[in-house]
Amino acid sequence: MGKVAVLIPHYNNLTGLKSTLASFQPDDPADVVVVDDGSRTPPNEAELRTWVSGERKIYLVLMSKNVGIEGALNAGLHRIRELGYDYIARIDCGDANVGRRFTIQRDFLDSHPDINLVGGAAQFVDPSGAVLFVRTMPRDHAQIADFMFANSAFMHPAVMFRSRALDQVGDYPTDFPAAEDYAFFWRFVEFGEVANLPDVLITYEVSPDSISRSQRKEQLRSRLAVQGLHNDGSLRAWRGRVRTRALMLAPVGIIDRLKSRRYGQP
Q1: Measuring CA to CA, which of 45, 136, 143, 209 is 20 to 30 A from 63?
Q2: Please, what is the average pLDDT of the chain?
Q3: What pLDDT was estimated at residue 265?
Q4: Helix %, strand %, coil % for the chain, to 5?
Q5: Residue 263's pLDDT is what?
């Protein structure tokens, strides 16, 4: 069985970090690497150990100053690779694991050596914990590759990928602010096989402070730049860019209502 480390970037959100670690099941093995991105009050390893159950190692990477999410993620990737882990999982502060999420993904990657990255479905909740909708993602590589022309085919906090794939894929790109995951996952799609599981692996908190909301315009500009980089001249590529331009003009409230109608209640 491959060894798993979960990468959690943190910035001024100790409450969210604590709730995320508390969601880890004690019999769901994964060690933890928290990267603090220059918080006013960073966590310490002793308190991290009290917030998470089960037999697992805890590592804390302290950035000397705030470098942004891309730099924090890459610092975490480097540390995890130095430690020799086979698989890297992701989750963000405020989100929660559902069940034995790490075991499910590790077992899938162990039994599918051709797959380099696997994601899954997510249950969206508001800050009070009320369920908004469940979002499933395209399952097989062909469906994912097609979907990527419009948007990311993965829920970033729900992915797990092979450390060795980073030899070809590289780090998170730093030239697509707020859409580093979209650019990163494109590299995986182009490098080899990827997949999504039908299982709901996380609950995803829709917060007004999230990057997708607080940096929405910048994220959409970066998404458009990524789409331009992967524009193959096809109709699906054209549709993806048109969709992104339309989102730039649409109020976020309208987008929320459309998502709720599309995905419905769980």
Answers
A1: 209
A2: 92
A3: 45
A4: 45, 20, 35
A5: 54
